[in-house]
């Protein structure tokens, strides 16, 4: 494998990625970053450098095995590097969460070539069509389901299920899938066979939830078996590196270097630049010269970009790079978590964008576990990819929706004020109110799904994991005291309706397990236990205690450099360019302005495909 990895002599050519210049510099070799690097470097006359802190994990069984899909969150490399054994993830701690018993929670971020796609659950679900449609209402014309759909197809190469998989619940509608893209998707051979799917399907039907033959057509509602980002015939995880990088790693115009991007370097190093001013035509005047990154041995290197810098470090790291580059909130505010932004770190303000690091939306993940008698045909260690998506009407009854919608619409001003105050009023309550009204419309007018309930089974054990899909709560991610580590504050369940959704979804999951035919197999509740949460008639207080004491991150965070109009707290425009500059874009989960009902990785592939097309069509030269 003739790789152009600037990592070690064993990988081929050794070079110093200092000075450059490169046409494009991509900060982060994750899901979106590798798509962009692949597509831009397809032009042999375009040079691309990717900078990534993680290493080559293409042969690591903790990454490649479909059955090990939960292991990478906790796995540690066995081979030493620099005298220690680093994890496949960066592990951070959130701030204490007031609505989750004041707990600080572990928050993971992938650290490998392939990013978080090397450690995720491999689920391939796009979400409801109404969700990208709502992006346009936030100042993004042309970003809607119809516009995104071709890029979903462009990225995908779907393998239809086998006869045995079809008997176990796998299904598909051909027009919903691409068949010639880089990303292989399928149902893995490890998918459960046997009778469990039929039992689950029959039980959900008894509760009014039909079978969704293919949830990737823009409507995820109902019960389905989801496809996965798996190369079925090779029996390996299909992460972004396998899909978009390893086959093109030998391109002479594509380099990758190990390091952590610290900041964008501006022309004249930022001196004299006047905070993202516009000229008489309304165009940005600030220009990036390149980036500064830190090598594994602690050296700082500057590399030049002739055309553009593309930040793709994810919803946690991208806002830190922007803030270290002087893009963010210049105001000192020590009343929020005892830290402030830019001025408290002595960082000159290049572009005043108060939305950087704000609008962080995450989903709290809650679990119920039961013992029981699993079917004889349940294979030990198999994957059970079964999920049920419910709307507000499913949870509360269609007849109750008008009153519920009215009550929640009346609550939006209070929620907006509460969120603004909790996040230091960096985005105004008025701006938040507009965003939350768009989200309210998604739930109550567009009938978008509001919760996902995963049903799982292991020998002798059953359970559910669920989360609110479209939380009204908003948090933040900012530089910490050392201007190196993130301060992650998701503000889980800050808006009380998120708690209402989580409790109603938990009750729906509990009812599923006590409804025939699944109830014939299920025994006692073991998590959190029958005393903490009775199987019948548990009170709201008991449910809320379960949420507060056990909820964990779902790792679907987004929005910290949101694609919205600037007056709403947006950070990038509809071409993903950071407001106030000419040649820095963001292409990762941080630009997605609203949560989606699907699983995040799928939309990131489509977003990055479209972003690559936008960048190539413009071909900016400075």
TrEMBL record:
Name the SUPFAM superfamilies for this protein.
FAD-linked reductases, C-terminal domain (SSF54373), FAD/NAD(P)-binding domain (SSF51905)
UniProt cross-references to Gene3D superfamilies, sorted A to Z: FAD/NAD(P)-binding domain (3.50.50.60), Glucose Oxidase, domain 2 (4.10.450.10), Glucose Oxidase, domain 3 (3.30.560.10)
| Residues making up the signal peptide according to the UniProt record | 1-17
Obligatory cofactor(s): FAD
Does the UniProt entry include the keyword Cytoplasm? no
Where the record annotates domain Glucose-methanol-choline oxidoreductase N-terminal, the positions are 110-133, 314-328
| One Pfam family from the record | GMC_oxred_C
**Keywords noted in UniProt:** FAD, Flavoprotein, Oxidoreductase, Signal
**Alphabetized InterPro entries for the sequence:** FAD/NAD-bd_sf (IPR036188), Glucose_Oxidase_domain_2 (IPR027424), GMC_OxRdtase (IPR012132), GMC_OxRdtase_N (IPR000172), GMC_OxRtase_C (IPR007867)
- Give the family from UniProt: Belongs to the GMC oxidoreductase family.
Q: Please identify the protein, giving its name as recorded.
A: Glucose-methanol-choline oxidoreductase N-terminal domain-containing protein
Query: What species is this protein from?
Result: Apiospora aurea
């Amino acid at each position: 494998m003739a790789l152009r990895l600037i990592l070690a002599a064993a990988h081929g050519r050794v070079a110093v990625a200092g000075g450059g210049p490169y046409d494009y510099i991509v900060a982060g070799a994750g899901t979106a970053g590798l798509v962009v690097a692949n597509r831009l470097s397809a032009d042999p006359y375009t040079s691309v450098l990717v900078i990534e802190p993680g290493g080559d994990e293409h042969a690591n069984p903790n990454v490649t095995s479909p059955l090990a899909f939960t292991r990478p969150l906790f796995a540690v490399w066995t081979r030493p590097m620099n005298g220690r054994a680093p994890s496949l993830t960066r592990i951070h701690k959130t701030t204490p969460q007031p609505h989750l018993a004041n707990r600080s929670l572990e928050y993971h971020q992938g650290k490998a070539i392939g990013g978080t796609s090397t450690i995720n659950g491999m689920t391939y679900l796009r979400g409801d069509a109404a969700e990208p449609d709502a992006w346009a209402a936030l100042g993004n014309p042309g970003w809607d389901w119809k516009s995104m759909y071709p890029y979903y197809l462009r990225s995908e190469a779907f393998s239809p299920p086998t006869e045995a998989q079809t008997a176990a619940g796998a299904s598909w509608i051909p027009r919903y899938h691409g068949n010639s893209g880089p990303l292989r998707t399928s149902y893995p051979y490890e998918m459960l066979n046997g009778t469990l799917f039929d039992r689950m399907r029959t039980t959900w039907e008894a509760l009014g939830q039909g079978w969704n033959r293919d949830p990737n057509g823009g409507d995820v509602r109902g019960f389905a078996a989801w496809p996965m980002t798996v190369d079925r015939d090779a029996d390996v995880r299909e992460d972004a590196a396998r899909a978009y990088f390893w086959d093109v790693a030998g391109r002479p115009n594509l380099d990758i270097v190990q390091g952590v991007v610290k900041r964008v370097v501006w022309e004249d190093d930022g001196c004299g630049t006047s905070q993202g001013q516009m000229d008489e035509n309304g165009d940005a005047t600030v220009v990036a010269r390149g980036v500064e990154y830190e090598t594994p041995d602690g050296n700082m290197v500057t590399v030049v970009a002739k055309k553009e810098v593309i930040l793709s470090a994810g919803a946690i790291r991208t806002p830190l790079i922007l803030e270290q580059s002087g893009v963010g909130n210049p105001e000192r505010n020590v009343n929020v978590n005892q830290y402030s932004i830019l001025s408290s770190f002595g960082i000159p303000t290049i572009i005043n964008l108060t939305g950087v690091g704000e609008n962080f939306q995450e989903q709290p993940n809650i679990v119920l576990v039961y013992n029981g008698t699993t079917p004889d045909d349940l294979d030990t260690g198999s994957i059970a990819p079964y999920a049920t998506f419910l709307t507000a009407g499913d949870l509360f009854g269609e007849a109750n929706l008008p009153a519920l919608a009215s009550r929640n619409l009346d609550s939006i001003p209070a929620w907006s004020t509460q969120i603004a105050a909790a996040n230091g009023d960096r985005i105004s309550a008025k701006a938040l109110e507009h965003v939350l009204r768009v989200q309210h419309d998604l739930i109550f007018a567009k009938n978008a799904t509001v919760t996902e309930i995963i049903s799982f089974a292991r020998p002798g054990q059953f359970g559910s994991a669920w989360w609110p899909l479209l939380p009204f709560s908003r948090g933040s991610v900012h530089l910490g005291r050392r201007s190196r580590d993130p301060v992650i504050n998701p503000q889980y369940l800050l808006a009380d309706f998120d708690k209402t959704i989580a409790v109603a979804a938990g009750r729906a999951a509990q009812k599923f397990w006590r409804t025939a035919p699944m109830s014939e197999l299920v025994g006692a509740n073991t998590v959190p236990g029958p005393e903490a949460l009775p199987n019948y008639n548990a009170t709201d207080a008991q449910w809320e205690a379960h949420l507060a004491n056990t909820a964990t991150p779902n790792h679907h965070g987004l929005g910290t450099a949101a694609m919205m109009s600037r007056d709403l707290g947006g950070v990038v425009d509809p071409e993903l360019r950071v407001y106030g500059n000419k040649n820095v874009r963001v292409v990762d989960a941080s630009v997605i302005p609203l949560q989606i009902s699907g699983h995040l990785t799928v939309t990131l592939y489509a977003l990055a495909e479209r972003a690559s097309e936008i960048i190539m069509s413009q071909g900016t030269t400075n």
